[in-house]
Amino acid sequence: MKISSREKLILAPAALFLAFLAGWLCRGWLGRPITVETQRMLTPGAAVTTLPAPTETGRVNINRATAEELTAIPGIGEHLAQAIVAEREQGGPYLYPEDLIRVKGIGPESVQELLDYITVGE
């Protein structure tokens, strides 16, 4: 079966589009996830919750900290600290602080609140 030049003209842009679409869909798997910082607008009567400033000793390394050390982070209780350690042992080290979303009970909003207190590096 031969492909005519007219069919080639139609297939070439379709193949380019499919290649672009595949790259667009796979962009999150190829590297660090893209993070976007936003500003929250408070409406009258909305509850305001603030976390205390990080300690002078710095951030907690979530790849090395024990469950007890993780409970020192504001918003992390004993149960959640144990879940973080268990997920780290089962799924491997966290490559990025945002990887805490792997832990059941931690959502995107919780991760954003914890970013000032945690690290995965030294």
The side-by-side strand order for the widest beta sheet comes to 1-2
- Oligomeric organization of the protein chains: single chain
Distance between the termini: 61 Å
Estimate the global geometry from the Cα principal axes.
Answer: elongated
The H/E string reads HEHHHE
- Please state the CA-atom Rg, rounded to the nearest Å: 22 Å
Structural class: mainly alpha
The helicity comes to: 25-40%
Mean pLDDT metric: 82
Main beta-sheet strand count, sense and barrel state: 2 strands, parallel
What's the β-strand tally?
Answer: 2
> Poorly predicted ranges (pLDDT <50, ≥5 residues)?
50-57
Number of helices: 4
State which percent range the strand residues make up. under 5%
Describe this structure in words.
By secondary structure, this protein is mainly alpha-helical. 39% of the residues lie in helices and 3% in strands. It has 4 helices and 2 strands, in the order αβαααβ. The protein has helices spanning 5-26, 67-70, 78-91, 108-114; strands at 60-61, 118-119. The protein has a two-stranded parallel sheet with strand order 1-2. The chain is elongated and about 70 Å long. Mean pLDDT is 82; it is low at 50-57.
Short description:
The protein has 122 residues and is mainly α. It contains four helices and two strands; from the N terminus they run H-E-H-H-H-E. It is elongated.
List strands and helices in order, with pairings:
Blueprint: H1 5-26, E1 60-61, H2 67-70, H3 78-91, H4 108-114, E2 118-119
Parallel strand pairs: 1-2
